[in-house]
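Example record used in the benchmark description.
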Amino acid sequence: MKEVLYGSTRGSGEKITASKAILKGLADDGGLFVPDSIPALDVSLKDLSTMDYKGVAYEVMKLMLTDYTEEELKKCIDGAYDSKFDTEEIAPLTYAEGAYYLELFHGATIAFKDMALSILPHLMITAARKNNISDEIVILTATSGDTGKAALAGFADVKGTRIIVFYPKDGVSPIQEKQMVTQKGDNTLVVGIHGNFDDAQTGVKNIFGDKSFGEKMASKGFRFSSANSINIGRLVPQICYYVYSYTRLLGEGKIADGEKINFVVPTGNFGNILAAYYAKQMGLPVAKLICASNTNKVLFDFFESGTYDRNREFVLTSSPSMDILISSNLERLIYRIAGNDSARCAELMKNLSEGGKYDIKQSERDGLSDFYGNYATEEETANEIARIYGACGYIIDTHTSVASAVYGKYVRDTKDETKTVIASTASPFKFTRSVMNAIDKKYDAMGDFELVDEMAKIGNLEIPNAINEIRTAPVLHDKQCDKDKMRDVISEFLGL
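Model output (structure tokens):
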């Protein structure tokens, strides 16, 4: 099996192994790590269809994380995909109103981030051992709502690590915030910043790039890594569930071997849909990748015009995990459509940093042919939740609704009848007020946890443990800071 090495999208520095890339998180030049080649699946789709989630995950990840031994990788997978998930399938498919919904929210924190963040701590600790790292690893993460809790749950009390999560104080749902601020673990810190997600993400990236701060950390026995999707250790595990969903449809006779399907992905930071793109590059029969945006439609405008422009109003929506104007993982796609030209990629990212926008050439736009982009307004998002519930009783969250509404637009635009899987990225219990108000405005008079009970009743659903355990949990994290004080908060937490 060919060794896959990882280099920066911006080009400087040598190529390194997967385990080293996972430990570093971000390249020294500020670029993201990308594989020097994308290997093809070497087990038939038919054979994969007979395997469980762990089996499929191993067959995918072994190709991308080539310096992990079979024993190491299987141990990481076994530690990740266990009873933390409330279904043996890990990522079940539900058919509703003309599409298959890939439910990625059955993990400990009821959002799709669990699919990768359940395994990342195992991959990282294994990587530290492989590379003789004795420093304490400090996970530094910005979150728009879901990554934070999933990362906290993954790294809490993991020996040799600490985790610091920054989130926009007024930019997440009440349930999302409660999940984070009640997090236990002596090695955890949660901080609400006075700003939006882009402020938090930019602050984290700047801290990663601050060499003097890094040297100060190193002198005290610390090193930074990331649990955001900028870490390749987050991205690779996400490829697995696209392959898994295809092989479930194949195994159940819903599609023929080799038949192409579409994927619809609600998209903010671009990592989730990029994983689907990588799955296609590995040989998964995928027709169209449908990129669904909310009112913060910077990605839709990019696919329409070839111009990426973050100079616009930032809108707080009912799908907060997608309230993003700087989609970090798009850089990995830009690198690829630019012909793996790191100098060109660095130039475009410099334009984004300095002027807030960049334009790609027509030849680069041609590389976007795998994608279709569209967006859903707040009204369309609410209407789609009500439509699906009214038609079949299936309840979806706001982010999944954005994807479903955009899929409806895609079908109307193209008349494409290809079988389609929609990535259902969060449990509706995570956004109870928005979801229940969409179904009927009368629910707005209820309290947050009354809404939880009512949703369970009208949807015939079991309330997830993640919700029950925060009903009476005490707040353990109440720290807030301005966006320019993030370094100070880190220094205080680490005793620098």
